[in-house]
């Protein structure tokens, strides 16, 4: 694929230097930033200053991800997963996870490149959006590295914003350093009997006469089990049952004297995917900890960490879809069957269009949550929208990530099913994104709290989508009609739930699926309106295809004319601009020389 360089001046615009993409036979070795013109255009629209400051950094990161990191991921997954050592050479009980050097080096390399540290600089920190963007690229090659990066960022975020000043001063710097010695993070909430029911936590926090706090219990599913600093939920002795009785504690792996803290890793999980990552069961055997939040705020603080992680989960799942499309398009461009490359066959084109549209929708909704995270840090009134967008993004991107990985494997065929091709690993690894940080049912319960409980999430959602629809230019009237149709169904469903809250559990997941489609369609239409002002109608076809599938007629019409997306297939999959007049879009009456301006939407 073609790459381009930034302009270090006020006219900086990656778009105007971009050339149509071509697909190489091997995706490994690609620059996963330079080749991803859609992601660049999203950033250029929502965070142009951040993109310009970090263009070269992101390009270097994309080159590393598409090359060295991807090679390491395949090696660690197939040949050198982590091993647990439970005792030292003297027979003493000392838990230690042994990684192959390539994984350890790659993991620290991500921190050296600023994936977490840049957002926590003392002077002029970057927005967390930069970390989320890097996470989007990481998951295209190795979710086993992206996962611990996610939790390291989550712990650092909680320490930075919510921990007592003395705790922040002592521990935050170790988690945000960029010298190859970063202490990585973990979030320990899941227990054997509770799963997502964190309020059922049985781990006990004991406070001694000297004020020292120790934890006693079992954490059942701890990713990045060898973390240097972890957040754990526990119930202080005498605290009430339920979530209000929980505190939140920082668990260092080693004590100040250098000795190992008093907890042990029982075993490492034998998982379907993410085999390069150490996920374990941890016995807390009097581990010395530091209180971050006392009851009743412990679970609330842990949910802050999980909200951060859910956004990383969403951008990671969008990244999986980008890699799925890249693998499928590269294979189809070079694989010949029956005398020509299979990308020339309509059925293959149909699958590739679906992969691309799905990936761009997921990128849109994931980056909506990502940018809102930074907005909400400065404006607390945006927190309900952040929670709502995050729940919908986490659900939609994870579900579509699995389906996209499956489709890519199918297009590559028998080779894609073998472990020699990245499609097999991507498919296995993508499955975890549906269960990490809460499965779909948990996101649906969060949605219910926001739209059918005390929060005014229903009004916020309707107002957001209405604002997008009202701002769409006349060229997108058909897409606007479909979006309004989906919104009208949403309004009816939300009104019903307000009147019949007892039915919430039955319909929450269906409602979540529908609202995710509405939000994705709205965001794609908003992107399309922006691009029309630049005389490019490519995104309009992407939005049209998504909205047609979500809210258009469902009857089978074999005699229907070819879709515009098929007619302009080559331009769409190569990110080539499509002049609006090619689609029959008329210029605004009385001002034919000027493109339509879409009204800006406030975040």
Describe the structure.
The protein is an alpha+beta fold and 603 residues long. Among the domains are: 183-297, Butyryl-CoA Dehydrogenase, subunit A, domain 2 (Beta Barrel), CATH 2.40.110.20; 440-583, no CATH class. Helices cover 52% and strands 11% of the residues. It contains 18 helices and eleven strands. The strands form three sheets. The protein has a five-stranded mixed beta barrel. Strand 10 and strand 11 (340-341) form a beta hairpin.
Question: Total number of helical segments?
Answer: 18
Shape summary = globular
- The mean pLDDT is 93
Show unreliable segments.
1-9, 587-603
Oligomer: single chain
Number of strands: 11
Largest beta sheet: what is the strand line-up?
A: 4-5-9-7-6
Helix content: 40-55%
**SS class:** alpha+beta
Radius of gyration: 24 Å
Q: Report the end-to-end length measured between terminal Cα atoms.
A: 33 Å
